[in-house]
Amino acid sequence: MTIRQATDADIDAVERGYTELLTHEKEHGSNSNWVLGLYPTRAVAEKGLVLKTLYVLEDAGTVRASMVLNGEEAEEYRRIPWPYPAGPGEVLVIHTLCIPPSGARRGFGKAMVEFAIRRAEETGCRVLRIDTWAENKPAISFYGKLVFRLAGKTDILLQVLIPEEQVFLERKVSG
Fold first, then answer.
1. Is the omega angle on the peptide bond into residue 88 within 30 degrees of 0, that is, cis?
2. 132: phi then psi, degrees, rounded to nearest 5
3. 8 A C-beta contact, residue 53 and residue 39
4. Cα–Cα distances in Å, from 124 out to 4, 23, 120, 121, 173?
5. What is the pTM of this model?
6. How far apart are CA 106 and CA 99, in angstroms?
7. CB atoms within 10 A of CB 61
8. Burial label, 162 (beta-carbon count in 10 A; 0-12, 13-18, 19+)
9. What is the per-residue pLDDT across 30-56, written as a single tens digit (0 to 9) for each?
10. pLDDT 10s digits, 130-148
């Protein structure tokens, strides 16, 4: 298993991962509250590729997971009473962490978050942050096991498209 910055050759696989997850959620109920055709889309992956913030997990020659890592905090982040103060350049944010059902329960999500923790340490960030839909109980539990603390909740319009209540989580980085 290898986690690396994505290349042009990975975009189709990342898009297939989004489609696989969202098709599964459409048929079996959603944990992410993402919507097929609205978010995430190929354009999200392409933007991450251009900005060099898209990462993939490859296992046995197949892309099994993807995420965007950067310091971008949406406007809603300013409304959250973060437990750990951090200024510009001291925050790394996980966006659009996607583990398609075919890769579920194989440790790929944990590996991606651990990679993000290492990147935060390497780049001198004080904290790692993430947000998720308030009804995404599996993700909230998962992040809690990885020592993320609930910082707050707020209503948002995800990608200016999808109304939802989001929870915001944070993990102090020892680096």
1. no
2. -155, 165
3. no
4. 19, 38, 6, 5, 9
5. 0.93
6. 10
7. 5
8. middle
9. 888 888 888 999 999 999 999 999 999
10. 999 999 999 999 999 999 9
In eight-state DSSP terms, residue 46 is H
What tokens were used for 164? 């939802």
Cβ-proximal residues to 47 (8 Å cutoff; 6+ apart), any chain:
none
Strand partners, 127: 91, 172
Sequence-ordered list of residues with C-beta below 8 angstroms from that of 3, at least 6 positions apart, any chain: 55, 56, 57, 58, 111, 112, 115
Q: Which two tokens stand for residue 47?
A: 């933007």
- Map out the domains of the chain as residue ranges: 2-172
With beta carbons less than 8 A apart as the criterion, state whether 165 and 171 touch: no
CA gap 128, 159 in Å, rounded:
21
Longest dimension (CA), the chain: 42
Alpha-carbon radius of gyration of the chain: 15
What sections of the chain are H helices per DSSP?
11-28, 42-50, 108-122, 137-145
Which residues are CB-contacts of 147 (< 8 A; sequence separation ≥ 6)? 171, 172
| Check whether domain 2-172 has CATH 3.30.70.2740, yes or no | no
